[in-house]
Design goal:
Blueprint (H helix, E strand, L loop, with lengths): L4 H16 L15 H12 L3 E2 H8 L3 H13 L3 E5 L9 E5 L1 H23 L6 H18 L1
Antiparallel strand pairs: 1-3, 2-3
Helix pairs in contact: 2-5, 3-4
Length: 147
């Protein structure tokens, strides 16, 4: 019996996740020696405005308690610091900002990510690049619609 389109999508998506290395807990798919969530947090903090933990949780798609523990780890490594949010009337709200060391590590992660995605796209025929990107947009939009 032939697989349904959703079965085929699931099987191919899982195969991609495995081959890309997302499930490795000690290294990112880009080869950086840290978890994927740590790498994503560093990238978010490096490329956007300062974020409080709730906003960082929203950006990462993680629970606030998970991001609190993640932020604790970043602070313990000397990569981030918490400081009062001058725009909040709630004195408990803290912005998470990168330290100089954190900016350096985030730069390494961003460079490794750019190289990995460039190599990945280089392995796809040039006339299919737009198809790959469009498929990712469609999957993201479909995923967002389920939430």
């Amino acid at each position: 019996m032939p697989e349904s389109p959703s079965d085929e999508l699931a099987a191919n998506f899982v195969e991609f996740i495995h081959s890309f290395g997302v499930l490795r807990s000690d290294t990112t798919p880009c080869g950086q020696p840290m978890s994927v969530s740590t790498a994503h947090a560093l990238c978010e903090l490096a490329t956007g405005p300062p974020l409080n933990q709730r906003d960082l949780a929203d950006r990462l798609g993680l629970s606030p308690s998970t991001v609190s523990r993640l932020t604790d780890q970043l602070v313990a490594k000397g990569w981030a610091e918490r400081r009062p949010d001058p725009d909040s009337t709630d004195t408990r709200v803290r912005l998470v900002t990168l330290t100089t060391a954190g900016e350096h590590v985030a730069g390494q992660v961003l460079a490794a990510r750019a190289q990995r995605f460039a190599r990945l796209l280089d392995a796809v025929p040039v006339d299919r690049h737009a198809t790959v990107v469009e498929a990712l947009h469609l999957l993201k939009a479909a995923s967002d619609a389920l939430d």
